[in-house]
């Protein structure tokens, strides 16, 4: 009786099914993503138009999360805020991943002066805490969501570069890479057709966890007045607008805080589960 060979993807699914917390985190993130996509259909009120006759109403059946100091429905703003926060996370980390991956593969494969330059630049950026580096970049570029995305992308790139470089160094001396070189494959083909697939698992894990970090960083910058500004429903901006009223109306900070906490925690748990499912040593 022949033994059936299990494909790598099937093996990954079998291993991932054992990661119960990661599955729960994935379900939560899919729900948050669905909320972001269908926010216009789910939001009971307009999230931008003030209604001063309904200022600072406590949570009730008519306003599930209360209203803010201009009478806007907090629940509706939370739903649309999911769009903003997730967009910042995905776009910024994707930009950092693309730049870092390209630099990491080239540095690991080519080596020499280019490798030294890329790694020394990465070392300089690693010397600064992420939030401090983001504050410095935004201070230079100016406040706003676009500059926050650029700042997060800049300090995300070196980590992707280092991770991909390490994977490239481990793969470049394998037999199938030597066989490709012997057959006359170009360096570009070897790097991006033969080596890149071997780095995807490491990239996927870090990409997932980095989205949570970027959402938290963007919220922190908005809270400090360097990121999104009113009337944006970004969760960090909602925290900032409610901090002066948090003692009398704590729901203004509790609900966006819970949204940030659940989203970031879910991304981190999912990333950890992916790492366990993709690690053949586990």
Structural description of this entry:
- The chain is an all-alpha fold.
- It contains twelve helices and no strands.
- The chain has helices at residues 8-16, 20-37, 39-42, 74-110, 112-126, 130-141, 145-171, 175-182, 187-195, 200-223, 235-242, 251-278.
- Helix 6 packs across helix 7 and helix 8 packs antiparallel against helix 9 (187-195).
Helix content: over 70%
How many helix segments? 12
Percentage of residues in DSSP E strands: under 5%
Basic shape: elongated
Instruction: Specify the CATH architecture.
Output: Orthogonal Bundle
Average pLDDT score: 87
Helices and strands, in order, run as HHHHHHHHHHHH
CATH class category label: Mainly Alpha
CATH topology, by name, is MetI-like fold
Rg calc: 22 Å
Structural class: mainly alpha
Largest sheet: none
Q: Total domains, how many?
A: 1
- Give the CATH H-level superfamily: MetI-like
